[in-house]
Amino acid sequence: MRYILARFYELGGRVGGPMTFRLVLQPTIATLVALRAGLKDAREGRPAYFWTLLTGRGQRIKLLREGWRAIFKIFILAVVPYVLIRGPVNRLAGRWHRKSQSL
């Protein structure tokens, strides 16, 4: 338990460091997707997701698949920009780096 608390404390200490925006963006996107899914569940009169996941044996696999699809969309939304941006940035930075070394 101490290890887990220490890891959370370390994470809090890195708020000003690299990739700080990720600490805001990922939970925000996950929250928005969860709000959308929760509103849909309410419109359809479905019970609470987590409770049904724990107690609803017949629906568990269906709910896990549904949840995975939502999480997968978030994952894809993060991966696609990463893949599209990393290569061009590498090329541009490489050119800039080579020019600065030749001067």
What does this structure look like?
The protein is mainly α. It has one domain. Helix content is 83%, strand content 0%. It contains 4 helices and no strands. It has helices at residues 2-13, 20-43, 49-55, 60-102. Helix 3 crosses helix 4 (60-102). The longest helix is centred in the last third of the chain and has 43 residues, at 60-102. It is elongated, with a radius of gyration of 21 Å. The termini are far apart. The mean pLDDT is 82.
- Distinct helical segment count: 4
Q: Give the integer mean of the pLDDT values.
A: 82
String of helices and strands: HHHH
Radius of gyration from the alpha-carbon trace, in angstroms: 21 Å
Strand content: under 5%
Please count the beta strands (DSSP E, at least 2 residues each): 0
Helix content: over 70%
Give the overall form.
elongated
Report low-confidence residues grouped into runs of 5 or more: none
Total of domains:
1
**What characterizes the major β-sheet?**
none
Derived from helix and strand composition plus strand pairing, the structural class reads: mainly alpha
N-end to C-end Cα span: 54 Å
